[in-house]
Structure formats: C-alpha cells, structure tokens
Amino acid sequence: MVAAHANTEIEATILRLVAERASITPEDVARALDTDFHPLLGRIRKIAVTLAVQGAIEITRKGRAIPPEEMRGLIRLRRKPADPLQGHAE
User: Fold this and answer.
1) Which CATH number fits domain 7-79: 1.10.10.10, 3.40.50.300, 1.10.260.40, 3.90.870.40?
2) What residue segments make up the domains of the chain, in order of their start?
C-alpha cells in the first residue's frame, strides 16, 4: 500500500531533486518518496504542471522545454534557467 504523501511533500521533493541534478523524471520523484511508487505518478505530474505554471521548473520532452499544457508521454523536469535580463534595470 502506498503511504499518503501530502502535495507539499511531493512539491518539496521535486524542487530538491531538480536542485541536485540537471534533470529528473517523475519516476525519480516517486522512488524518492515510496518503494511502491507507480500510484504516485499521476499526482507528481499534476504537481509538476503547477510548479511549471508558477515558473519554478520546466517540463521538457526530447530535451526541449514545453508548455505545461502540452505535457504528454515521456517527460523530464528541470530547474528553470535564470532570466538573464532579470535584475537589470534600464
């Protein structure tokens, strides 16, 4: 049986893993949370969409960032690159 994991725990795990690695899969997140990880995958993908919409991470497919609404199939998650223009006043 899968242990109950709060959405905040899943979110924190996603953010921790993308900070530690170049990119991760939803399965990496699920395995970090539970040995019986398959039931968690749907929730992890939904939380990844929320984080992407908030600008915290990027969802990629075939190495390219995709809009969250286009997420399907095999995906990876990565830290969103810093905006080079952010913090520069004109």
Assistant:
1) 1.10.10.10
2) 7-79
